[in-house]
Amino acid sequence: MKKLLFLLFVPLFSFGQITIDQTIVEPAPYVIGDTITIRTSIDTTSPIVFFTFDTEITNSALQWIGSEPVATNTNLTYTEDHYSNYRWSQNPTIGVGDLDGQYEDWKFGPKNDGEAQYLSNTEYNVHRYAFLTAGETLNGALVEEKFILLNDTQNIPYRYIHKFTVANAKDSDDVTYDIGSQVLFLSIDEADVSTGNPLRQIKLVPPTNPGPGYDPTNYTVYIAEIISKDEQNYTWQSSPKVDNEPLDANGSYYTDKMENGKEYEVWIRTNEQAPFLDQVVTVSDVYLAFKNVMGKGINNEEWNWDYGIQEILADVYYGQTQEEQNGPVINEYDVYTMFAHILGEPLDYENIAIAGGDFVPTWNNMMDRYGLTSTDPLPPFFLATAENTNEIIEIGSAIWGDVDFSHSTTPIAPGAELKFNFGSPAKGRAMESKIVTDIDVATTLQDGKVVMDFSLTKEDLAGIQFNLKYDTSKLTFDSATFDTGNEVFNFATPKQDKIIIGSLDRKGTARIKTGTPYRLIFTPKQTLQNTAGLVTFELTDAVNGNAKRVQLNIQ
Amino acid sequence: MKITKFRIFNLFAMLLVLATKCTSDHYEFEDVSFVPQSLKIEQVEGLKLASMFVQNEVAMNVKLSSGGEHRVKIYGIDDKLISQEKLTANLGDNVLTVYTKILPKGSYRIELYKNENRLGVSTFFKN
Fold first, then answer.
1. Is residue A5 part of a domain?
2. Within a domain: residue A8?
3. Around A124, how many Cα atoms within 13 Å sit in the side-chain half-sphere?
4. Are residues A386 and A472 in the same domain?
5. pLDDT 10s digits, B59-89
6. How far apart are CA B121 and CA A81, in angstroms?
7. In a domain, A9, yes or no
8. What is the phi/psi pair of residue B100, to 5°?
């Protein structure tokens, strides 16, 4: 029996293999809200000078605060990168604990099989660490990560909350080594966690299909206690704020400042400096608005909104006399304002509700009321009681102009969806579109110029938009040429180190010609041998003739 | 005719002049470009960066076993293509540059392709 046990506990790796392990520095028991430290170490006799590894964190259990390298090597180069809302999809034919094998498979790129790659998932984050010495061997403790322990809502709380996914080690001759782990998945025994003073969780419900750059850490939550309210006249008074804090990568905020028996207003705000703001309103939004606001009757479609709130989000311009007298009116002023926003035109933000001014106008409410446009316009009130202490306070939020919900919550409340033709759903479903097509975009050196060509084979596109960034220390933007046919409106707007280029059909019938619709030309500021990395893609967006979003995969 | 030492010397001198005049003045040198040790690639083709940790730019060796159009592609962690170059380089080693100044902080994968065939891959970290 002893022999059998011995065989079972013999490490599952060969001699010379590197072992990576993780441990919680603070001993159990824990209280929700505690700060815990997870230390990652390696054990090796191999002369490795480079080591990188990834961890996957369960957002419902851990809220990351910060990381600190603890490797003691001199002349250590260290980097950490944190990616919100990704989950590792392993290659099942390679052992899950074969960390270097998984790394090599990831490194060789996706094979369109969903394996050995990171996929979007709002329940998880990925942290990547890398260490390089000037020749000394890496060994022992590498990094410590600090987390706040949350009230985990998984079916089995605190199970597999911190996982190694891939790792790679090299010596000074670039020789790689096998890497395994004895604690691949870190868990905490639920019995070791007590609630203490329970924290209430406020959660922003993410978009159904998050658009480019969406990141909940660019939102804050504002909480104030209601002192009095008049539901008939939609007025209320509240105390000075009790909280105004950023959301974590899971879109959540945890607070102990809400007392049972008291009512609060809870708002989610989008930061004015959020990097994704110029990717919220794009051609797919504007085309949808053209079809539904100005173009009623185009293609025999008189109405294409899916939810009533889309009509309100399209009302971005409210400076007209007509509007001041008669209330909200959605017309060509609104649509052309959205279009001008894409083109980077200077806008009168005094009279415009669209991301890009001094504030980001949003529509908020509790999910059971979010999106109701006629029956319950009251703000997001929440009455704290002993019974709902452990309930997640889910809030929906939409940004004005974002009519395709790329960076906004899709409503689920009964009554939020528009129904026509005796109760059948609306026609649009633009935000749920899964149309995907490839496009070839690349830079090349031609006669001393840097040329970027766009090769399109997909037909039936009514709008395309690319937001590009270029290295202004190396390039000067010269010109853009178009070969899109004669019916669509083309645009190319340079803004500092960015260029917004694309086309939009404003009639509802024209389409972008296939072939090479766009060419950008830059002049180098110095002699160049090649162009790799000089121009990058920040946003691609497209919409077809039926106002459905089309995902462009650059090949 | 008596062969004297002087005549032998003259004969060699004439042969030397003839040999010199008959030699082509077109010299062929082997095209050898300097490749730093950090960029040397053992295989017949591939891609290698001078450093895995980069700031504004990093040297890259693209080693090719055939001519024609090749592509250098840069991917983010989610496998989305961030930047792409089409280049026509020489057979053998080509020491080029990857410009990384405008890339956000993060880790990236860079790949070398000919048509659909991946010839090389490397990773780097932008600080």
1. no
2. no
3. 20
4. no
5. 999 999 998 899 999 999 888 899 999 999 8
6. 20
7. no
8. -120, 10
pLDDT tens for residues B25-54?
Answer: 454 444 556 889 889 999 999 999 999 999
Nearest to A309 by CA among A199, A193, A428, A219: A428
CA end-to-end span of chain A: 58
CB contact under 8 A, B77 and A86: yes
Which two tokens mark A86?
């990704």
Which residues of chain B does A86 touch, with a Cβ-Cβ cutoff of 8 Å?
A: 77-78
> Which neighbouring-strand residues pair with A549?
A543
Nearest to A546 by CA among A461, A477, A489: A461
Calculate the CA A436 to chain-centre distance. Answer: 19
Q: Per the CB < 8 Å rule, is B81 touching A555?
A: yes
C-beta atoms surrounding A226 within 10 Å: 17
**Residues of chain A with C-beta less than 8 angstroms from the C-beta of B46:** none
Longest alpha-carbon distance in chain B:
92
Rounded Cα gap, residues A400 and A313, in angstroms: 5
Which domain covers residue A77, as residue numbers? 15-194
Give the pair of three-digit tokens for residue B31: 């095209």
Q: Which amino acid is at A412?
A: I
Q: Is residue A6 part of a domain?
A: no
Task: Walk me through the domains of chain B, giving residue ranges and CATH numbers.
Answer: 40-126 (2.60.40.1930)
Looking at CA atoms only, how far is residue A236 from chain B in angstroms?
Answer: 44
Last residue of a domain, one of A404, A431, A458: A431
Cα atoms found within 13 Å of the Cα of residue A93, Cβ hemisphere only: 4
**Nearest CB neighbour to A107, from listed B78, B82, B121:** B121
Q: Say if residue A29 is preceded by a cis peptide, omega within 30 of 0.
A: yes
Q: What would the two tokens of residue A56 be?
A: 């996957």
Touching check for A533 and chain B: CB below 8 Å?
yes
**pTM, to two decimals:** 0.84
Largest CA distance in chain A: 89
Q: What is the ipTM of this complex?
A: 0.85
pLDDT exceeds cutoff 50 at A273:
yes
